[in-house]
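Researcher: Let's try something more involved. This one mixes different molecule types, so please make sure each is placed in the same coordinate frame as the others.
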Amino acid sequence: VLKVGGPSLERPADRRAPEAYEGPDGIGRFRGDLVAWLDDHASELQLGRDGDSLSDEVARTRRNQRRLWNAGWLRYGWPPAVGGFGGSPILRAAVAEEATARELFFLTLFAVTEVLVPTTISVAPKLAEGYAQAFLDGSEGWCQGFSEPDAGSDLAALRCRAVDKGDHWLVNGQKIWTSYAQFASRIIVLVRTGSPESRHRGISALLVDTDSSGVTIRLLGGINGHDEFSETFFDDVSVPKDRLVGEVNGGWGVAMSMLRSERGAIFWMLSTWLLGELHHLLARAELGPSDDERIGHAFASIMALRSRSWTTQHRMSLDTISIPETSIDKILMATSEQEFFDIARETLGGLIEFGEGEAARRWRSAYMYSRAASIYGGAAEIQRNIVADQVLGLRGLT
Amino acid sequence: VIDAELAVDLDRTFAAALEYDDPARARTELLAAGWLDSLDEDEPVATAIVFRIQGATCRDAAALDDVITRRVADRWPEAAGDLAVAYPLTARAGEELPMTHAVLPGHRQARRVLWMDDLGGEGLEIVELEGELTLPALGGVDPDLGLLGLSAPPSGRSSHPQDAASLWNAALAAGRVAVAHQMVAGARAMLSMAVDYAQVRKQFGTPIGTFQAVKHRLAETLVVISAADAAVVAAATTGNVTAAATAKVLAGRAAATAARNCLQVFGGVGFTTAHTFHRYLRRNLVLDRLLGDGRTLEIELGTQLRTGALTGDRLVNLEDPLRIALLA
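Model: All components are placed in one shared frame. Result:
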């Protein structure tokens, strides 16, 4: 059942007001309270099991999300308009981190909330108020329709078109690499509302219900063994006018803001996940002194991501980091994840290539998924262009 | 503590003190500018300011000796006061170097020397010299630095602490943070010169900074520098010994990446002594060797991880505050 309408605001009696977590030691106190609660309620939270399918993982993640929402933890750091308690967004990073350390969420699925909701709140507060809580509390999923077959790295070349029909938008076109579309109730789609040549100036963002007539989702087999990605087709899809996210032709800014959000709490969570994976590797593999240099190398690379992300969490909460600067975080994320799984493959002695059983399948899937880290969310080459042009100032030389 | 505004003032003050190429003169000026008081007041910020200046200017006032000996003096009062450190040059047995230890030239007039046989703190002692410190130049890849070499403790009255290893570990970590700041700043200086050059150097009728191959080298360099800088700031903030070692590893990577990519962008001119690039290249090669080189530290971290010594330590956490005064 979809929950649409005004969010509920009451706070469970055993949760402190967000003001209790302000001040110099606030985040530490918050993490302490959170960890104590997670330890006390571990039996109510569901861990993954051998042989879980992607649907199992999605269902498990949402169940845990719902439990943490109902207990109040997932509501810190979100504004009251979407059912949150308010407080610093850093509190969200703390919840994401501790949930990750306990392997409560399928990370890339949970991550979508952090990508889509903060920007929706700031550019389309009415839509956020009406719809975001159901996404945040695990009742429903959203997905992100940005890329197209002919608009990958060159996102501004997108052609999926929305025509203003007076009382609605009429959408036609195709998206690709839509993560978790098959589990999503809504999709934020970038559409062409300007002339075909208008590039980034003629793009808008719409919040579309995936059960709308004319929306078709076709799964793409992923090399990691999960059908995470889809092609999404729009054939004469009618979208209410009030589903515009931001301004008409303001979609490029919406997209860039969402990409920046992705590099906040999620990358912090990923650094914790990679440290956990490193410890899984150390626990499992028969490692010897000859592996020490590579282990130390991988650890330092993960700490590179983590240290940078630590500064980014704080700078985001102070609003002192520009969108182009977060491309540095994205490059570090892709580099550390790929380096780690390269080293895991080398030290696991053939498990990834030949192993059978759940552990082998898990390592193989994670290794394969890591190959995509330098492609999704803006390819490594695009990130380096952004850093060179917009951070180092090499744009527009003649 | 030093706030962001005071940090800007101190940066100006210490930069003026470090305008002297002669290390002993630079040291005198730095001490007169209040460096030791700042170090006592706020070690993370004072260290960041002074070592970033040293890195950016390729100058050295033996400030590293102060960072280290103050930490040693926390647990061994005898180490208080002016004290030169004799740095072990290699963590590896069996490598034959002309000299095994180095003293920073800013301290060539020192009357007391802190000696240790190796970076584990083995044989830690303070030697009160009978006369002046008379040591030969070490030479090596960076003669401009002016390191002085020695292979045995200088003669004099020596005293030994109890529990040398544990008091040395805290000092070593503080020293690694300081050297890492200096290396990152040196890498930043190389990048800044290379970016300027890419904007004016033309080939095929266009600035080379318009070519993606060049852009990507420079972008990659900034990425590695930014990561190392964040890791040094994190280590300075937490005081974590493992974080300090990790920061030194990442500073070494930043230095090596900057040297490789920036020299490539400069092309032939970067290979000449007419350009200042080589001074930064040389300085960072030496600094990587001080207090543990990157590769050795990676192996040490790997050993600690493999043997379960670092389980559960995430090194830096959200509650660790990011101080604006520490940002470059």
